[in-house]
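Here is an idea for our session: we take a single protein and study its fold together. Once you have written the record down, we can walk along the chain together.
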Amino acid sequence: MHLLHEAEFWVLVAFVIFVAGVWKPMRRAIDGALDARANRIAAELDEARRLRDEAEALLAEYQQKQREAEGDAQAIIAHAKEEAELLAARAQQDLQQALERRTRLAEERITQAEAKAVDEIRAAAVDVAIAAARDVIAGGLDENRRAALVDAAITALPQALR
């Protein structure tokens, strides 16, 4: 028992008692700090998972919206093409109708001009024939025969005007 008389032994015992006495509260503090840090890290991981899930949900939602927008854009483009084709067809039809109407009006004007020209030629021919007949008749008829021809022309006039 030689150790009980040495100071180093008692310093060692005191140190072991001190460490044992300090170790329990220190261990609780260290465990508490480690547990708090572990809880904080777990909370941060949970928050990160939650944020990642929200980001994935938002990404999926925006991708869905983008697909819907692309579908809407395709529908709008298709509708615009249909409208353009309808407008082009309508414009072509209107142009065709306008051309037909103008052609018909031109043909009517030509027909009217022909009829007018024929009437003018007839009137001129009648005037020439009348003048020639007057000269021929006036030169070769006596007064009685002229009166008989005028009476016959007056009688035939209503039938000629019909």
User: Anything to note?
Assistant: The two ends are 172 Å apart (CA to CA). Residues 112 and 160 are 23 Å apart (CA to CA).
